[in-house]
Amino acid sequence: MFKGSLVALATPMKINGDIDWDALRRLVNFHLEHETDGIVAAGTTGEPTTMSFSEHFDVIREVVNIVDGRIPVIAGTGANATAEAVELVRYAKDVGADGCLSVTPYYNRPTQEGLYQHFKAVAEATDMPIILYNVPSRTGVDLYNDTVSRLACIPNIVGLKDATGNLERAAELVKRLRNEDFAFYSGDDPTACEFMLAGGHGVISVSSNVAPKGMHDMCEAVFKGDHDRAHQINTRLMPLHSVLGIEANPIPVKWALCEMGLADKGIRLPLTWLSEKYHATVGEALQLAGVLEE
């Protein structure tokens, strides 16, 4: 089971929008040095919807090669077409990823039965562990708990990344599947600590891009039963969690990585660089979190 702080890795780009492979290597090594528990490559934060198929493949392969087995690499393999999601998951298997994160098909708004059949087809195309990803605020479709329960019966569907921020709903599903070999990951940094205290196994985090050690330590405190320390760390990181959503992800986190010297000023349209009016706000949050000096 994947566990702990899993970073939803941003993809460093040059000012002209080309993928910056040297910066990608630096960023992955930054996470290895700061105890990130796993890396999600080419997930939503990695801007895969702006990449060509070959670029998407290359990012997954490069992260796998850099990590070289030291921590798990989970490939972002979601797509709004089932055939495309199947192709991505097969490629991830071929290049040695340890698992896949598969987002609900976006924009076309399938029924719950359509979602079930989509993920069933993806799971049947591979023997890799698959984590479902529900983020209705971005996809326009919600994966209901009843559908997750059905999908949990498929052996290689091993978990859910829940980015709804609805702790009551998450707790109900944890209770329902507590006796199953099924993992729960928060996809919402502001509620991640409480999510894990309610039975979650980790967080797939945007904030981990810039505060990997803090997110790792918070998860470790939860797992050790040190709830006071977990809350203390979470309180320190909360301003960061809040401002990294001030504009659409990954706009703020890419600005933060640039300020930290880990990436260039690169992002792809239709996303744009962080609005100047938010620079001071995000910079202050980075200082409060202890990841950027004043």
Polypeptide structure, described:
The chain has an eight-stranded parallel β-barrel with strand order 1-2-3-4-5-6-7-8, surrounded by four helices. It starts with a strand and ends in a 6-residue tail after the last helix. Helices cover 45% and strands 13% of the residues. The radius of gyration is 18 Å and the shape is globular. The longest helix has 17 residues, at 227-243. α2 packs parallel to α3 (82-95) and α8 packs antiparallel against α10. It has helices at residues 21-33, 53-67, 82-95, 112-124, 136-139, 145-151, 167-176, 189-197, 212-223, 227-243, 251-259, 279-288; strands spanning 4-8, 38-41, 73-76, 99-103, 130-134, 157-162, 183-186, 202-205. It has twelve helices and eight strands. The protein is of the alpha/beta class and 294 residues long. α7 (167-176) links the parallel β6 (157-162) and β7. The model has no long low-confidence stretch (mean pLDDT 96). The protein has a single domain (4-288), classed as Alpha-Beta Barrel (TIM Barrel), CATH 3.20.20. It comes from Larsenimonas rhizosphaerae. Pathway: Amino-acid biosynthesis; L-lysine biosynthesis via DAP pathway; (S)-tetrahydrodipicolinate from L-aspartate: step 3/4. It is found in: Cytoplasm.
